[in-house]
Amino acid sequence: MALGVSAAITTYFFFNVEISKFSVVPHVQTTALVVDMEPPTEASSADDSIAKLTKGMEHMRAYVSASPTQSKSPSNDPASPPPSSAQPPQPSTTSPADQPAHDDNTYGIPSSLINPPRRPAQRPPNPEKRSDPFQFGSRYLEEGDDIFEFNAWDHVAVDDTFRAFAETQYAAQRAAPVAAFDKARFNAHPARWWNTFYQHNTTNFFKNRKWLFQEFPALADVAAAGAGPRTVLEVGAGAGNTAFPIVDRNENPLLRIVACDYAKKAVELMRADPRCDGETMRAEVWDASAAGEEALPPGLGEGSVDIVVLIFIFSALAPDQWQQALWNVWRVLKPGGEVLLRDYGRGDLAQVRFKKGRYLDENFYVRGDGTRVYFFEEDELRELFGGEKSAEHDEQQWPRFEVVNLGTDRRMLVNRQRKLKMYRCWMQGRFRKPADLSTTPSADIAP
Fold first, then answer.
1. Are strands 333-344 and 359-361 parallel, antiparallel or unpaired?
2. How far apart are alpha carbons 140 and 204 in whole angstroms?
3. Which helix (H) or strand (E) holds 257?
4. Residue 310 pLDDT
5. Tell me, what's the pLDDT at 411?
6. CA-to-CA distance for 430 and 401, rounded, in angstroms?
7. What is the pLDDT of residue 407?
8. What is the dihedral of CA 91, 95, 101, 106, to 10 degrees?
9. How high is the pLDDT of residue 250?
10. Is the separation of the CB atoms in 346 and 363 below 8 Å?
11. Its pTM surpasses 0.85
12. Domain extents in the chain
């Protein structure tokens, strides 16, 4: 009996010392301590004492948490059962929508503005929720779902409340635009700001695009064995986060990838990578909005490219640069060649969060590092690439691509730890240069 009591006292003393290092449930149930009342036998060894001590300590594990702000309840600890005197856990009857709204709106969007959309009656339930955040398009937020169960939900429509909140943000942005002097400074030499960006961040800022081949299967096709001679031009390649994944996947010895950026430092970073070998892949400095003799990328002639990749690059151009950039892309593409585009959409979290002193023009902003970004409407891109752009004040025509597909990718991202909900919005499209150019504008009339 003395050994049993000693073990219990030792356990209580040990945890009083150790618990002070952690956050502890205020009321420790000392009745849960198990005291061995059987007298020890001569056959008992030191190992038996240690085992009993360990067993006596085990039930206390549930009351200790390494978190400085939140303690762990016994019912949530899979390693130990709750004490026999504890009441069984009761299921929660509070839905996520009934939880109090969090005051923290670090991201600029109150979490209370998001309501789960109702599931259409004709759509069957989706019992298997996708866990890979890069497989877009198949995780629907249905009525009754726990919003914080996953970190992303697809096709979540923006409700009227959030839309009104965003419009309030836009009005505040317009009321405090960039000063005229700074606006001219940011627009004069945009390549310099991106060059400084890559000098500071090198290859550490952007990650390789895991969704690349799922969203654009054409890139997987040209990299497949037996695809034959194919040329891919990436515009605004940055540090190679699109080009290098294509090289890694490539099984086509006749594939050629030309990665261009107008930031010299970005091109230096790509060339420093051994995968940029000058044969399968090469990197060049090129401004997509350049005119005259520099309108085409170095080493590429007119009608020489099968695929042009525009991923988060068109938004870096000012609206008055779009026309020249589109003509340059048109000229370098083969008849039947395609443009693959992904870019920012109006209403994206990044746009709503902009504060005063960042507004350059409607949907056009400058970031804190001096780089610019535009947020597109779907109809706007359809007009730009489809040649339907209003030309009331333009003497030049716009190229007319065939719109293969164009859509808005809306997603609600969730910070489950902080209970924050964030709307994201991107534009994604495929555009084709017609194989028959007899009814399309000639590049001779390009600006």
1. unpaired
2. 32
3. strand 255-261
4. 97
5. 82
6. 10
7. 92
8. 90
9. 96
10. yes
11. no
12. 2-76, 163-445
| pLDDT at res. 207 | 58
In the block, which residue shows the tokens 């952007």? 206
pLDDT in tens, 172-199: 999 999 999 999 999 999 989 989 988 8
Tokens (6 digits) for 387: 């040649």
Tokens of 329: 């892309």
How far apart (Å, rounded) are the C-alpha atoms in residues 119 and 383? 32
Return the pLDDT at 381.
Answer: 96
What pLDDT score does 253 carry? 97
Q: What are the strands, taking DSSP E only, across 264-401?
A: 281-285, 305-311, 333-344, 359-361, 364-366, 372-374
Cβ neighbours for 12, distance < 8 A, ≥ 6 positions apart? 30, 33
Q: How far apart are CA 70 and CA 256, in angstroms?
A: 55
The H or E element spanning position 406 is strand 402-415
Residue corresponding to tokens 């299967």: 217
Chain centroid, CA 29 distance in Å:
46
Write down the H helix ranges in 101-252.
Answer: 160-175, 180-188, 190-201, 212-215, 217-222, 243-249
As a CATH number, domain 163-445 is: 3.40.50.150
The segments of the chain whose pLDDT lies below 50 read 1, 3, 5, 7-37, 42-43, 53-54, 56-89, 91-108, 110-136, 392-393, 445
Tokens of 339: 């443009």
Cα distance between residue 270 and residue 79, in whole Å: 49
Residue where the block lists tokens 């390789």: 208
Return the structure tokens found at 276. 């940029």
Confidence at residue 63, expressed as pLDDT on a 0 to 100 scale: 36
Residue 22, C-beta contacts closer than 8 angstroms, at least 6 positions apart: 64, 65, 66, 67, 71
336: left (phi over 0), alpha (psi -120 to 50) or beta: left
d(CA 203, CA 211): 19
